[in-house]
Amino acid sequence: MKIVTVLGARPQFIKAGSVSREIAKHESIQEIIIHTGQHYDANMSDVFFEEMQIPKPDYFLGVGGKSHGAMTGQMIEKIEEILLVEKPDWLLVYGDTNSTLAGAIAAAKLHIKIAHIEAGLRSFNMKMPEEVNRILTDKVSSILFCPTLAAINNLNNEGISSTGTEVCLSGDVMQDGALFYKGLAEKPSELLIDDYVLCTIHRAENTDDEERLTSIVKALNEVACNQTIVLPLHPRTKSKLESLSITLSENVQIIAPVGYLNMVWLIMNSKFIMTDSGGLQKEAFFFEKQCITLRDETEWVELVEAGVNKLVGANKEMILAEFNRCINKPSALFDQSIYGGGQASKAIVESIIKFMA
Ligand code: UDP
């Protein structure tokens, strides 16, 4: 069986780290990897392939740093050319980026079966590019691997049962990665402290909205008077802060984006997490850290229900209130079964093999 996997952005490399390792255990499967180049910097891309031993991409499309339309359109064209040559049995895509959607559209038009990992998630906010990408990808996929029951419910509410699409509760592949890599975690060499709160900001709804970005930075600067914040700075956020002349306090320790082994160390050794990242909300949970989510909604609703994740948006007063609550009352209950317990990649590969038989 031949599978073509389309990847392009940091969270997809992290997810593929676990699934490609599982695929490699099966001699009957040949995996061809297309890297679209959506993220292409050494510290946003290469480091993950090296550290997580993801097979070197067979094709690199070099389609990064463009508008959504230009990026997605050029990806579709180039992926189609490759699919016509490779003639795979399956196309495998992860999550909700432009690379996910481009791969799915190219394969659907060629009648190649599509497996979507991290299917069924919804923020119910159609202004998010990720929401558009994930809904459209789910619609054209043959098999949908859902990380949570909430994702299955979303698909049921959209009438998936009448479409003939296979839906599988696989658990979350990021939990497989967190368990596998935690023993390999390494302290980032540039970090000189051990007492910090970890923060990441990169989502367009925050970086592309001056009012929201300013409000988040004001809150961070205020809490940083008493507690060092470590901020691995995403390139998009860096350029927005620079262009808007928004400055962070000296107690916000900015570092360049780190590889996964450093990131796992940073999560494990933090007091708690503040983020607008999807993946980091779950990783906080896997490592039993509370999470303050700098968004108005989340796809990971079970974390909010479990009381370990609080949505505060970009509201300065809400960020400060939740920060003080986490600093003063850090304990919570983390039931690790809600994401499947770390067997998702195995379940996914076995399902694909079964589906072919
Ligand atoms: N991450 C990383 N290095 C960093 C920042 C994040 O390895 O400097 C990891 C993080 O642990 C998570 C993934 O990148 O596994 C999340 O990616 P991102 O926040 O870019 O995307 P999202 O999950 O929101 O789609």
Please provide a written account of the structure.
The chain has 357 residues and is of the alpha/beta class. It has 15 helices and 13 strands. The chain folds into 2 domains: 185 residues, 3-Layer(aba) Sandwich (Rossmann fold), CATH 3.40.50.2000; 154 residues, Glycogen Phosphorylase B (Rossmann fold). The strands form 2 sheets. It has a 7-stranded parallel sheet with strand order 3-2-1-4-5-6-7, with helices on both faces. Helix 1 packs parallel to helix 2, helix 3 crosses helix 4 and helix 4 runs parallel beside helix 5. The mean pLDDT is 96. Bound molecules: uridine-5'-diphosphate.
Structural class: alpha/beta
Q: Rounded to an integer, what's the Rg over CA atoms?
A: 20 Å
CATH class of the largest domain: Alpha Beta
Task: Provide the CATH superfamily of the largest domain.
Answer: Glycogen Phosphorylase B
Which residue ranges are poorly predicted, with pLDDT under 50 across at least 5 consecutive positions? none
Kindly report the CATH topology of the largest domain: Rossmann fold
Spatial order of the strands in the main sheet?
A: 3-2-1-4-5-6-7
Q: Shape from CA axes?
A: globular
Distance between the termini: 10 Å
Name of the CATH architecture of the largest domain: 3-Layer(aba) Sandwich
H and E string? EHEHEHEHEHEHEHEHHEHEHEHEHEHH
Strand content: 5-15%
The number of helices is 15
- Quickly count the domains: 2
Largest sheet: 7 strands, parallel
Count of distinct strands? 13
